[in-house]
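Consortium newsletter contribution from the modelling node. Members have asked for a concrete example of what our holo predictions look like. Here is one, prepared for the flavin-adenine dinucleotide complex that several groups have been discussing at recent meetings.
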Amino acid sequence: MRTIIIGGVAAGMSAATRLRRLDEHRRISVYERGAHVSFANCGLPYHVGGVIPERSSLLLQTPESLASRFAIEVHVRHEVVAIDSSARTVTVRDLETGADRIEPYDDLVIASGATARPGASAPSIPTHTLRSVDDVDDILDVLADAGKEPRVVVVGAGFIGLEAVENLHARGARVTLVSRGRQVLSPLDPEMAAPVLALLRGAEIDVRLGVTIVGASPGLVHLSDGESVEAVLVVEASGVHPNAALAEAAGIRLGETGGIAVDSRHRTSAPRVWAVGDGVEKRDHVDGTPTLVTMAGLANRHGRAVADDIVGGEPHDAVPALGTAILGVFGTTVALVGWNERRLVAAGLPHRVIHTHPASHATYYPGADPMAIKLLVDPENDRILGAQIVGGAGVDKRIDIIAVAMAAGLTATALSQLELAYAPQYGSAKDPVNMLGYVAENLAGGITRTVQWHELASAVEDGALLIDVRTPAEYAAGAIPGSRNIPVDELRARHEELLDRPVIVHCQVGQRGHIAARLLTQLGHDARNLDGGYRTWAAGMAAA
Ligand code: FAD
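And here is the predicted structure:
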């Protein structure tokens, strides 16, 4: 029996090594068109920045190590250029010699990943993607010849684009970030992305949003807004599309997203042909529709599962993809899971929004970091639809808890019941995740009613009074136009000053506002709390 695997990085190599652990007697051949297999794509930006100083650290395995430990035949610089699924053969091109040869298989795994979308058009300036070790070598070569503080343009403000920005900056480059989108990190909602933009600008990154590259002349990149910026290098990170052309040419069915269509066991429409990784369509956790999620965890997990299926082991049906992701940028952590509000609105799905601004651990213990959390909940059944978190320490564990809760089908209210580890240097007796559960429960039960930052102006226009319940000092330091300051501790005595009008209360982050709204409601007022308080409103207005 012979298994051929196309693509030798995350999904392909997980499939190959698991297959060997399950079947010592099978012949396993991996064809990889690049120069390296099993390299750490996720670490590439950090070698550019010098955080991972040794290039060799990126090379997790070599053809030699895979041959000696796993008896896997690895052919780098070999591209599979055709698949004949009736004859069960592939045509392999040796990229050094250009010679083609036909290789037979019993089982075939397509793990060909994704390719950078064509983007920047700056022919007179070196332009590289950041997807392979060769790309990193090329980028470092350009920088080595460029002198002090070279000017670099990064195209694309997604996860890889921002990792490129940070690491080029760390290398001493002066970076311009160009993005077609009107905000950085489009998977985030605007009020959650606004602090990231501020962070980039604070680090003196020249951020140009809503523009594209329209051309270049030596040393200059021309932008669609008519401006030009200096550059010795353009790093292209404006997104990827699935590598599915090879499968399509072989008559293998693609899905509506353009990824290779597979069933829950990653079997394609061709017999004995599996496909895994970034090139493959996944099923979305929230609505079950086909989706593309290009993350390493899924690629590794699905590659491993395919090996089990090939040997006829216990089938592992793929669980729907949550899209859990995390990014570190200039000391801030950005993490998300599931859908954002923009996508829910576009799909017409009902949703309830919760913003909180907790600390990473008990605030009486030194060193707590702030974070902003946004949770999206289905108001009909309390199901968690998504979350976004931006902050410092502790963001990673909270997003993972929410991801686990979503995968397990816990309701938002059930988050309040999770028994999480607590000592003051790690968390709070009411952990930020527990607090989300309490807020969700209050909203579901009608104990709290909230207004979102983008709904405030029209609510006030419709006659609501806006009462800022923070201290006079906080109010003086910055207030929402049209608001009146009645500190929460004076509200019980002064509530009769409020006219017979609906009231919207707000504080800094929403907590005192909740106390105020509860007080006023019980005293007979029609009171709502501004969700996430002044901080979320200010972030939203900065993004608007
Ligand atoms: P790949 O790892 O891309 O491997 C596919 C391989 O197939 C390629 O090497 C390609 O050369 C080869 N190939 C394609 N066609 C052929 C052919 N016809 N013949 C032979 N070989 C072929 N994900 C995370 O979860 N977290 C992160 O922090 C993260 N950071 C990233 C940072 C960078 C810079 C990049 C580029 C990606 C990052 N990712 C991250 C995404 C993650 O690396 C991918 O999701 C994962 O590698 C996908 O695995 P794959 O096997 O499907 O594709």
